[in-house]
Amino acid sequence: MNESQRIHDAVEGNTHGKNKWAILFTVLVMTFMATLDSSIVNVALPVMRKALDAGLDQIQWVSSVYLLTTCAALLVFGRLGDIYGKVRFFQVGVAVFAAGSLLCGMASTLEFLVVARAIQGIGGAAAMANNMGIITESFPARERGRALGLLASFVALGMMCGPVLGGFIVSSLPWEYIFLINVPVGVVSLLVGFKTLPHVAPERDGRRLDVAGSLLLVPGLFLTFVSITLLEAGVTLQVLGMLGIGLALLVAFAMVERRVKDPLVMFSVFQDRGFVANLVCLFISFVAIGVYELMTPFYLQDARGFAPDVAGLIFCVIPLANAIAGPISGAVSDRIGCERPAILGLFVFALGLLSLGFFDERTTLPVILACLGAASLGTSIFQSPNNSLVMGSLPAEALGFGGSVAALARYLGMAVGITGSTSLLYGQMSVAAGRRVTAYVAGRPDIFLYGYRWVYVVTAILVFAGFSLALARYVRKRSRSRARRG
Protein backbone atom coordinates (compact mmCIF):
# COMPACT_ATOMS: atom_id res chain seq x y z
CA MET A 1 0.00 0.00 0.00
CA ASN A 2 1.53 3.36 -1.03
CA GLU A 3 1.67 6.53 1.05
CA SER A 4 -1.24 8.11 -0.80
CA GLN A 5 -3.59 5.21 -0.03
CA ARG A 6 -2.51 4.99 3.60
CA ILE A 7 -3.02 8.72 4.13
CA HIS A 8 -6.46 8.50 2.54
CA ASP A 9 -7.34 5.53 4.77
CA ALA A 10 -6.13 7.44 7.82
CA VAL A 11 -8.27 10.43 6.92
CA GLU A 12 -11.38 8.37 6.25
CA GLY A 13 -10.89 5.93 9.10
CA ASN A 14 -10.12 8.35 11.90
CA THR A 15 -12.89 10.85 11.33
CA HIS A 16 -15.28 9.30 8.81
CA GLY A 17 -14.05 11.67 6.15
CA LYS A 18 -14.61 14.89 8.11
CA ASN A 19 -10.95 15.37 8.97
CA LYS A 20 -10.08 16.16 5.38
CA TRP A 21 -11.63 19.62 5.75
CA ALA A 22 -9.50 20.29 8.83
CA ILE A 23 -6.48 19.18 6.79
CA LEU A 24 -7.51 21.56 4.02
CA PHE A 25 -7.89 24.45 6.49
CA THR A 26 -4.40 23.88 7.89
CA VAL A 27 -2.87 23.77 4.42
CA LEU A 28 -4.77 26.87 3.28
CA VAL A 29 -3.56 28.97 6.22
CA MET A 30 0.11 28.30 5.45
CA THR A 31 -0.46 28.68 1.71
CA PHE A 32 -2.00 32.10 2.27
CA MET A 33 0.91 33.22 4.47
CA ALA A 34 3.60 32.00 2.07
CA THR A 35 2.04 33.60 -1.01
CA LEU A 36 1.15 36.78 0.91
CA ASP A 37 4.80 37.27 1.75
CA SER A 38 5.75 37.17 -1.92
CA SER A 39 3.87 40.44 -2.47
CA ILE A 40 3.23 42.21 0.85
CA VAL A 41 6.79 43.49 1.17
CA ASN A 42 6.76 45.59 -2.03
CA VAL A 43 4.51 48.30 -0.62
CA ALA A 44 6.78 48.70 2.44
CA LEU A 45 10.07 48.94 0.53
CA PRO A 46 10.20 52.77 0.54
CA VAL A 47 9.73 52.83 4.32
CA MET A 48 12.31 50.07 4.83
CA ARG A 49 14.79 51.85 2.57
CA LYS A 50 14.69 54.94 4.76
CA ALA A 51 14.75 53.00 8.04
CA LEU A 52 17.70 50.84 6.98
CA ASP A 53 19.50 53.60 5.05
CA ALA A 54 19.67 51.49 1.89
CA GLY A 55 19.75 52.37 -1.78
CA LEU A 56 17.01 51.49 -4.25
CA ASP A 57 19.13 48.79 -5.85
CA GLN A 58 19.86 47.28 -2.43
CA ILE A 59 16.40 47.31 -0.89
CA GLN A 60 14.87 45.38 -3.82
CA TRP A 61 16.71 42.28 -2.57
CA VAL A 62 14.37 42.16 0.43
CA SER A 63 11.64 41.26 -2.05
CA SER A 64 13.69 39.35 -4.60
CA VAL A 65 15.59 37.00 -2.28
CA TYR A 66 12.35 35.46 -0.97
CA LEU A 67 11.13 34.51 -4.45
CA LEU A 68 14.59 33.40 -5.57
CA THR A 69 15.18 31.15 -2.55
CA THR A 70 11.71 29.67 -2.79
CA CYS A 71 12.10 28.86 -6.48
CA ALA A 72 15.55 27.34 -5.97
CA ALA A 73 14.44 25.01 -3.15
CA LEU A 74 10.98 23.88 -4.32
CA LEU A 75 11.97 20.79 -6.30
CA VAL A 76 14.24 19.48 -3.53
CA PHE A 77 11.50 19.74 -0.90
CA GLY A 78 8.94 18.20 -3.25
CA ARG A 79 11.17 15.16 -3.72
CA LEU A 80 11.90 14.97 0.02
CA GLY A 81 8.14 14.96 0.61
CA ASP A 82 7.65 12.06 -1.78
CA ILE A 83 10.41 10.03 -0.10
CA TYR A 84 10.06 10.86 3.60
CA GLY A 85 6.52 12.21 3.93
CA LYS A 86 4.74 15.30 2.65
CA VAL A 87 3.18 16.22 5.99
CA ARG A 88 6.54 16.06 7.74
CA PHE A 89 8.14 18.56 5.38
CA PHE A 90 5.04 20.73 5.24
CA GLN A 91 5.24 21.11 9.04
CA VAL A 92 8.99 21.76 8.87
CA GLY A 93 8.23 24.47 6.34
CA VAL A 94 5.65 26.11 8.61
CA ALA A 95 8.11 26.16 11.52
CA VAL A 96 11.01 27.54 9.46
CA PHE A 97 8.75 30.15 7.85
CA ALA A 98 7.52 31.37 11.25
CA ALA A 99 11.09 31.49 12.59
CA GLY A 100 12.21 33.44 9.52
CA SER A 101 9.33 35.88 10.01
CA LEU A 102 10.41 36.49 13.60
CA LEU A 103 13.98 37.13 12.48
CA CYS A 104 12.74 39.57 9.81
CA GLY A 105 10.83 41.48 12.48
CA MET A 106 13.99 41.70 14.60
CA ALA A 107 16.23 42.92 11.77
CA SER A 108 18.08 46.19 12.26
CA THR A 109 20.35 45.98 9.19
CA LEU A 110 19.69 45.27 5.54
CA GLU A 111 22.07 42.30 5.50
CA PHE A 112 20.31 40.62 8.44
CA LEU A 113 16.91 41.23 6.86
CA VAL A 114 17.96 39.70 3.52
CA VAL A 115 19.29 36.57 5.27
CA ALA A 116 16.08 36.30 7.32
CA ARG A 117 14.02 36.61 4.14
CA ALA A 118 16.04 33.78 2.61
CA ILE A 119 15.17 31.63 5.66
CA GLN A 120 11.52 32.55 5.13
CA GLY A 121 11.84 31.47 1.51
CA ILE A 122 13.25 28.07 2.51
CA GLY A 123 10.32 27.51 4.85
CA GLY A 124 7.83 28.66 2.24
CA ALA A 125 9.38 26.29 -0.30
CA ALA A 126 9.06 23.27 2.01
CA ALA A 127 5.39 24.01 2.65
CA MET A 128 4.39 25.06 -0.87
CA ALA A 129 6.11 22.06 -2.46
CA ASN A 130 3.87 19.65 -0.56
CA ASN A 131 0.53 21.44 -0.10
CA MET A 132 -1.07 20.23 -3.35
CA GLY A 133 0.14 16.68 -2.75
CA ILE A 134 -1.40 16.59 0.75
CA ILE A 135 -4.75 17.83 -0.58
CA THR A 136 -4.71 15.45 -3.55
CA GLU A 137 -4.06 12.50 -1.23
CA SER A 138 -6.69 13.58 1.30
CA PHE A 139 -9.63 14.12 -1.07
CA PRO A 140 -11.32 11.64 -3.40
CA ALA A 141 -11.47 12.54 -7.08
CA ARG A 142 -15.12 13.63 -6.85
CA GLU A 143 -14.26 16.36 -4.31
CA ARG A 144 -10.74 17.21 -5.38
CA GLY A 145 -11.72 20.05 -7.71
CA ARG A 146 -13.48 21.93 -4.93
CA ALA A 147 -10.52 21.46 -2.56
CA LEU A 148 -7.93 22.49 -5.15
CA GLY A 149 -10.21 25.37 -6.12
CA LEU A 150 -9.99 26.68 -2.57
CA LEU A 151 -6.22 26.23 -2.68
CA ALA A 152 -6.03 28.21 -5.92
CA SER A 153 -8.20 30.94 -4.37
CA PHE A 154 -5.93 31.20 -1.35
CA VAL A 155 -2.82 31.34 -3.55
CA ALA A 156 -4.37 34.20 -5.51
CA LEU A 157 -5.73 35.83 -2.35
CA GLY A 158 -2.30 35.79 -0.76
CA MET A 159 -0.66 37.35 -3.79
CA MET A 160 -3.37 39.95 -4.31
CA CYS A 161 -3.95 40.87 -0.65
CA GLY A 162 -0.27 41.63 -0.16
CA PRO A 163 -0.32 45.21 -1.48
CA VAL A 164 -3.64 45.92 0.26
CA LEU A 165 -2.72 44.54 3.68
CA GLY A 166 0.83 45.87 3.44
CA GLY A 167 -0.43 49.38 2.74
CA PHE A 168 -2.68 49.37 5.79
CA ILE A 169 0.04 47.96 8.08
CA VAL A 170 2.68 50.45 6.96
CA SER A 171 0.21 53.32 7.36
CA SER A 172 -0.51 52.52 11.01
CA LEU A 173 2.32 50.34 12.38
CA PRO A 174 6.12 50.00 12.10
CA TRP A 175 7.25 48.08 9.01
CA GLU A 176 8.43 45.14 11.14
CA TYR A 177 4.80 44.11 11.71
CA ILE A 178 4.55 43.07 8.06
CA PHE A 179 6.67 40.09 9.14
CA LEU A 180 5.72 39.73 12.81
CA ILE A 181 2.06 39.18 11.90
CA ASN A 182 3.11 35.81 10.48
CA VAL A 183 4.52 34.51 13.76
CA PRO A 184 1.30 33.88 15.76
CA VAL A 185 -0.48 32.64 12.63
CA GLY A 186 2.39 30.25 11.93
CA VAL A 187 2.44 28.94 15.51
CA VAL A 188 -1.33 28.33 15.45
CA SER A 189 -1.04 26.63 12.05
CA LEU A 190 1.74 24.42 13.38
CA LEU A 191 -0.23 23.39 16.48
CA VAL A 192 -3.42 22.75 14.50
CA GLY A 193 -1.37 20.74 12.01
CA PHE A 194 -0.06 18.42 14.72
CA LYS A 195 -3.70 17.68 15.57
CA THR A 196 -5.27 17.45 12.12
CA LEU A 197 -2.65 16.43 9.57
CA PRO A 198 -2.27 12.67 8.97
CA HIS A 199 1.16 11.74 10.31
CA VAL A 200 1.59 8.57 8.26
CA ALA A 201 5.13 7.35 7.68
CA PRO A 202 5.83 6.53 4.02
CA GLU A 203 6.97 3.08 3.02
CA ARG A 204 10.76 2.70 3.10
CA ASP A 205 11.19 1.39 -0.43
CA GLY A 206 14.86 2.25 -0.76
CA ARG A 207 14.36 5.64 -2.39
CA ARG A 208 16.93 8.28 -1.44
CA LEU A 209 17.38 11.96 -2.12
CA ASP A 210 19.76 12.67 -4.98
CA VAL A 211 22.22 14.76 -2.97
CA ALA A 212 24.61 15.41 -5.87
CA GLY A 213 21.75 16.60 -8.05
CA SER A 214 20.43 18.83 -5.27
CA LEU A 215 23.84 20.46 -4.80
CA LEU A 216 23.88 21.29 -8.51
CA LEU A 217 20.23 22.28 -8.93
CA VAL A 218 19.74 24.69 -6.02
CA PRO A 219 22.73 26.98 -6.70
CA GLY A 220 22.15 26.61 -10.45
CA LEU A 221 18.58 27.87 -10.19
CA PHE A 222 19.51 30.55 -7.67
CA LEU A 223 22.36 31.99 -9.75
CA THR A 224 20.27 31.86 -12.93
CA PHE A 225 17.33 33.67 -11.33
CA VAL A 226 19.59 36.23 -9.63
CA SER A 227 21.38 37.04 -12.88
CA ILE A 228 18.08 37.39 -14.76
CA THR A 229 16.91 39.80 -12.06
CA LEU A 230 20.15 41.79 -12.29
CA LEU A 231 19.81 42.07 -16.08
CA GLU A 232 17.00 44.57 -15.45
CA ALA A 233 19.65 47.10 -14.44
CA GLY A 234 21.81 46.41 -17.50
CA VAL A 235 24.12 43.86 -19.09
CA THR A 236 27.54 43.54 -17.43
CA LEU A 237 30.33 40.97 -17.61
CA GLN A 238 29.75 40.04 -13.97
CA VAL A 239 26.06 39.35 -14.54
CA LEU A 240 26.75 37.38 -17.72
CA GLY A 241 29.39 35.38 -15.86
CA MET A 242 26.93 34.60 -13.08
CA LEU A 243 24.33 33.55 -15.66
CA GLY A 244 26.90 31.32 -17.38
CA ILE A 245 27.82 29.60 -14.11
CA GLY A 246 24.16 29.07 -13.25
CA LEU A 247 23.37 27.57 -16.65
CA ALA A 248 26.49 25.38 -16.51
CA LEU A 249 25.38 23.99 -13.13
CA LEU A 250 21.93 23.24 -14.58
CA VAL A 251 23.48 21.44 -17.56
CA ALA A 252 25.65 19.41 -15.18
CA PHE A 253 22.54 18.67 -13.12
CA ALA A 254 20.70 17.33 -16.18
CA MET A 255 23.65 15.06 -17.02
CA VAL A 256 23.83 13.71 -13.45
CA GLU A 257 20.08 13.12 -13.27
CA ARG A 258 20.08 10.74 -16.22
CA ARG A 259 22.58 8.44 -14.49
CA VAL A 260 21.34 8.20 -10.89
CA LYS A 261 18.93 5.57 -9.58
CA ASP A 262 16.57 8.01 -7.83
CA PRO A 263 16.71 11.29 -9.78
CA LEU A 264 15.58 14.51 -8.18
CA VAL A 265 13.58 15.38 -11.29
CA MET A 266 11.15 12.67 -12.38
CA PHE A 267 11.57 13.12 -16.12
CA SER A 268 8.94 10.46 -16.79
CA VAL A 269 6.09 12.78 -15.78
CA PHE A 270 7.07 15.19 -18.56
CA GLN A 271 6.34 12.49 -21.12
CA ASP A 272 2.66 13.16 -20.41
CA ARG A 273 1.79 15.90 -22.90
CA GLY A 274 -1.33 16.83 -20.96
CA PHE A 275 0.71 17.46 -17.81
CA VAL A 276 3.18 19.62 -19.73
CA ALA A 277 0.44 21.59 -21.52
CA ASN A 278 -1.45 22.29 -18.30
CA LEU A 279 1.81 23.29 -16.60
CA VAL A 280 2.58 25.72 -19.43
CA CYS A 281 -0.88 27.28 -19.07
CA LEU A 282 -0.33 27.58 -15.31
CA PHE A 283 2.99 29.34 -15.91
CA ILE A 284 1.42 31.73 -18.43
CA SER A 285 -1.41 32.62 -16.06
CA PHE A 286 1.04 33.57 -13.30
CA VAL A 287 3.15 35.61 -15.68
CA ALA A 288 -0.01 37.63 -16.28
CA ILE A 289 -0.84 37.77 -12.56
CA GLY A 290 2.64 39.16 -11.91
CA VAL A 291 2.04 41.79 -14.58
CA TYR A 292 -1.22 43.19 -13.27
CA GLU A 293 -0.16 42.91 -9.64
CA LEU A 294 2.74 45.25 -10.51
CA MET A 295 1.09 47.49 -13.11
CA THR A 296 -2.22 48.20 -11.37
CA PRO A 297 -0.78 50.04 -8.32
CA PHE A 298 1.43 52.12 -10.65
CA TYR A 299 -1.60 53.11 -12.73
CA LEU A 300 -3.82 53.90 -9.75
CA GLN A 301 -1.26 55.88 -7.75
CA ASP A 302 0.97 57.49 -10.39
CA ALA A 303 -1.26 57.99 -13.42
CA ARG A 304 -4.50 58.63 -11.51
CA GLY A 305 -3.22 60.08 -8.23
CA PHE A 306 -5.15 57.83 -5.85
CA ALA A 307 -3.79 57.68 -2.30
CA PRO A 308 -2.21 54.32 -1.34
CA ASP A 309 -5.08 53.35 0.98
CA VAL A 310 -7.69 54.22 -1.67
CA ALA A 311 -5.73 52.29 -4.29
CA GLY A 312 -5.63 49.37 -1.86
CA LEU A 313 -9.41 49.44 -1.50
CA ILE A 314 -9.84 49.46 -5.30
CA PHE A 315 -7.42 46.54 -5.51
CA CYS A 316 -9.69 44.58 -3.13
CA VAL A 317 -11.97 43.71 -6.06
CA ILE A 318 -9.31 41.22 -7.20
CA PRO A 319 -9.17 39.00 -4.07
CA LEU A 320 -12.95 39.36 -3.70
CA ALA A 321 -13.53 37.91 -7.17
CA ASN A 322 -11.01 35.17 -6.42
CA ALA A 323 -12.69 34.22 -3.16
CA ILE A 324 -16.10 33.94 -4.83
CA ALA A 325 -15.25 32.36 -8.18
CA GLY A 326 -12.48 29.92 -7.21
CA PRO A 327 -14.51 27.47 -5.08
CA ILE A 328 -17.47 27.67 -7.48
CA SER A 329 -15.23 26.84 -10.42
CA GLY A 330 -13.76 23.91 -8.50
CA ALA A 331 -17.21 22.53 -7.65
CA VAL A 332 -18.39 22.92 -11.27
CA SER A 333 -15.29 21.16 -12.58
CA ASP A 334 -16.03 18.23 -10.25
CA ARG A 335 -19.38 17.86 -12.05
CA ILE A 336 -18.63 18.57 -15.72
CA GLY A 337 -14.90 17.96 -15.97
CA CYS A 338 -11.95 20.33 -15.79
CA GLU A 339 -11.12 21.12 -19.41
CA ARG A 340 -14.04 23.41 -20.28
CA PRO A 341 -13.86 25.61 -17.14
CA ALA A 342 -10.09 25.97 -17.58
CA ILE A 343 -10.49 27.03 -21.23
CA LEU A 344 -13.28 29.48 -20.36
CA GLY A 345 -11.17 30.95 -17.56
CA LEU A 346 -8.21 31.65 -19.85
CA PHE A 347 -10.49 33.30 -22.42
CA VAL A 348 -12.12 35.59 -19.84
CA PHE A 349 -8.71 36.35 -18.32
CA ALA A 350 -7.28 37.38 -21.70
CA LEU A 351 -10.25 39.66 -22.41
CA GLY A 352 -9.93 41.22 -18.95
CA LEU A 353 -6.23 41.89 -19.45
CA LEU A 354 -6.88 43.44 -22.86
CA SER A 355 -9.50 45.76 -21.33
CA LEU A 356 -7.00 46.89 -18.67
CA GLY A 357 -4.65 48.02 -21.43
CA PHE A 358 -7.13 50.65 -22.64
CA PHE A 359 -7.24 52.60 -19.37
CA ASP A 360 -6.36 56.30 -19.56
CA GLU A 361 -6.52 59.39 -17.30
CA ARG A 362 -10.30 59.61 -17.65
CA THR A 363 -11.33 55.99 -17.10
CA THR A 364 -14.13 55.98 -14.54
CA LEU A 365 -13.94 54.05 -11.28
CA PRO A 366 -16.82 51.66 -12.17
CA VAL A 367 -15.01 50.73 -15.40
CA ILE A 368 -11.75 50.18 -13.51
CA LEU A 369 -13.50 47.92 -11.01
CA ALA A 370 -15.33 46.01 -13.75
CA CYS A 371 -12.17 45.35 -15.77
CA LEU A 372 -10.12 44.34 -12.73
CA GLY A 373 -12.98 42.08 -11.67
CA ALA A 374 -13.17 40.49 -15.13
CA ALA A 375 -9.45 39.70 -15.17
CA SER A 376 -9.60 38.28 -11.65
CA LEU A 377 -12.74 36.29 -12.49
CA GLY A 378 -10.97 34.71 -15.45
CA THR A 379 -7.94 33.57 -13.49
CA SER A 380 -10.18 32.32 -10.66
CA ILE A 381 -12.23 30.20 -13.07
CA PHE A 382 -9.03 28.81 -14.59
CA GLN A 383 -6.86 27.99 -11.57
CA SER A 384 -8.85 25.31 -9.74
CA PRO A 385 -9.67 23.03 -12.72
CA ASN A 386 -6.15 23.46 -14.06
CA ASN A 387 -4.72 22.42 -10.68
CA SER A 388 -6.91 19.31 -10.85
CA LEU A 389 -5.66 18.56 -14.36
CA VAL A 390 -2.02 18.95 -13.30
CA MET A 391 -2.25 16.82 -10.16
CA GLY A 392 -4.77 14.31 -11.52
CA SER A 393 -2.38 13.19 -14.25
CA LEU A 394 0.34 12.14 -11.78
CA PRO A 395 0.94 8.77 -10.08
CA ALA A 396 0.77 8.77 -6.28
CA GLU A 397 4.54 8.50 -5.87
CA ALA A 398 5.04 11.71 -7.89
CA LEU A 399 2.51 13.98 -6.16
CA GLY A 400 5.13 15.81 -4.11
CA PHE A 401 7.30 16.37 -7.16
CA GLY A 402 4.32 17.46 -9.25
CA GLY A 403 3.15 19.88 -6.58
CA SER A 404 6.62 21.39 -6.31
CA VAL A 405 6.85 21.78 -10.10
CA ALA A 406 3.45 23.52 -10.11
CA ALA A 407 4.56 25.83 -7.29
CA LEU A 408 7.79 26.54 -9.18
CA ALA A 409 5.76 27.40 -12.28
CA ARG A 410 3.69 29.84 -10.21
CA TYR A 411 6.65 31.60 -8.60
CA LEU A 412 8.73 31.60 -11.76
CA GLY A 413 5.76 32.94 -13.72
CA MET A 414 5.36 35.78 -11.22
CA ALA A 415 9.08 36.58 -11.40
CA VAL A 416 9.07 36.57 -15.22
CA GLY A 417 5.91 38.69 -15.28
CA ILE A 418 7.34 41.31 -12.94
CA THR A 419 10.77 41.41 -14.60
CA GLY A 420 9.47 41.29 -18.17
CA SER A 421 6.73 43.86 -17.66
CA THR A 422 9.14 46.27 -15.97
CA SER A 423 11.59 46.01 -18.88
CA LEU A 424 8.84 46.39 -21.49
CA LEU A 425 7.20 49.28 -19.62
CA TYR A 426 10.36 51.36 -19.33
CA GLY A 427 11.48 50.42 -22.84
CA GLN A 428 8.26 51.70 -24.39
CA MET A 429 8.18 54.73 -22.07
CA SER A 430 11.66 55.56 -23.37
CA VAL A 431 10.33 55.36 -26.94
CA ALA A 432 7.49 57.74 -26.08
CA ALA A 433 9.78 60.14 -24.20
CA GLY A 434 12.56 60.09 -26.80
CA ARG A 435 15.14 59.36 -24.10
CA ARG A 436 15.99 56.63 -21.59
CA VAL A 437 13.34 56.44 -18.87
CA THR A 438 13.63 54.29 -15.73
CA ALA A 439 10.94 55.91 -13.54
CA TYR A 440 7.57 57.62 -13.75
CA VAL A 441 7.90 61.00 -15.49
CA ALA A 442 6.19 63.58 -13.29
CA GLY A 443 3.42 65.46 -15.05
CA ARG A 444 3.49 63.16 -18.10
CA PRO A 445 0.96 60.36 -17.54
CA ASP A 446 0.78 59.93 -21.32
CA ILE A 447 4.33 58.55 -21.35
CA PHE A 448 3.47 56.01 -18.67
CA LEU A 449 0.20 55.03 -20.36
CA TYR A 450 1.99 54.39 -23.66
CA GLY A 451 4.24 51.79 -22.04
CA TYR A 452 1.38 50.51 -19.87
CA ARG A 453 -0.75 49.70 -22.93
CA TRP A 454 2.10 47.83 -24.58
CA VAL A 455 2.55 45.70 -21.45
CA TYR A 456 -1.10 44.68 -21.31
CA VAL A 457 -1.48 44.03 -25.03
CA VAL A 458 1.56 41.72 -25.01
CA THR A 459 0.32 39.99 -21.85
CA ALA A 460 -3.16 39.48 -23.30
CA ILE A 461 -1.63 37.94 -26.44
CA LEU A 462 0.38 35.57 -24.25
CA VAL A 463 -2.73 34.45 -22.36
CA PHE A 464 -4.62 34.05 -25.66
CA ALA A 465 -1.79 31.71 -26.72
CA GLY A 466 -2.38 29.67 -23.56
CA PHE A 467 -6.11 29.63 -24.32
CA SER A 468 -5.40 28.41 -27.86
CA LEU A 469 -3.15 25.63 -26.53
CA ALA A 470 -5.79 24.44 -24.06
CA LEU A 471 -8.58 24.65 -26.65
CA ALA A 472 -6.57 22.76 -29.28
CA ARG A 473 -5.83 19.94 -26.82
CA TYR A 474 -9.50 19.73 -25.85
CA VAL A 475 -10.66 19.62 -29.50
CA ARG A 476 -8.12 16.89 -30.34
CA LYS A 477 -9.18 14.89 -27.30
CA ARG A 478 -12.86 15.14 -28.30
CA SER A 479 -12.06 14.17 -31.88
CA ARG A 480 -10.14 11.07 -30.78
CA SER A 481 -12.98 10.13 -28.44
CA ARG A 482 -15.55 10.39 -31.26
CA ALA A 483 -13.29 8.39 -33.58
CA ARG A 484 -13.03 5.55 -31.05
CA ARG A 485 -16.80 5.49 -30.56
CA GLY A 486 -17.39 5.59 -34.33
How far apart lie the N and C ends? 39 Å
H/E element sequence: HHHHHHHHHHHHHHHHHH
Rg, rounded, reads 22 Å
CATH superfamily of the largest domain: MFS general substrate transporter like domains
What would you say the CATH architecture of the largest domain is? Up-down Bundle
Task: List segments where confidence is low: pLDDT < 50 over at least 5 consecutive residues.
Answer: 10-18
Strand content: under 5%
Number of strands: 0
Helical fraction? over 70%
Number of helices: 18
User: Major sheet, described briefly?
Assistant: none
Domains (count): 2
Give the overall shape: globular
- Give average pLDDT, whole number: 83
Label the structural class.
mainly alpha
CATH topology of the largest domain: Growth Hormone, Chain: A
CATH class of the largest domain: Mainly Alpha
Report on the structure:
The protein has 486 residues and is mostly helical. The chain folds into 2 domains: 3-209 and 262-485, MFS general substrate transporter like domains (Growth Hormone, Chain: A, Up-down Bundle), CATH 1.20.1250; 210-261, no CATH class. It is built from 18 helices and no strands. The protein has helices spanning 3-15, 19-36, 45-52, 56-84, 86-106, 110-138, 141-172, 177-180, 182-196, 211-230, 237-257, 273-303, 308-315, 317-336, 339-356, 365-392, 399-433, 445-485. Helix 4 runs parallel beside helix 6 (110-138). The protein is globular. The model is unreliable at 10-18 (pLDDT under 50).
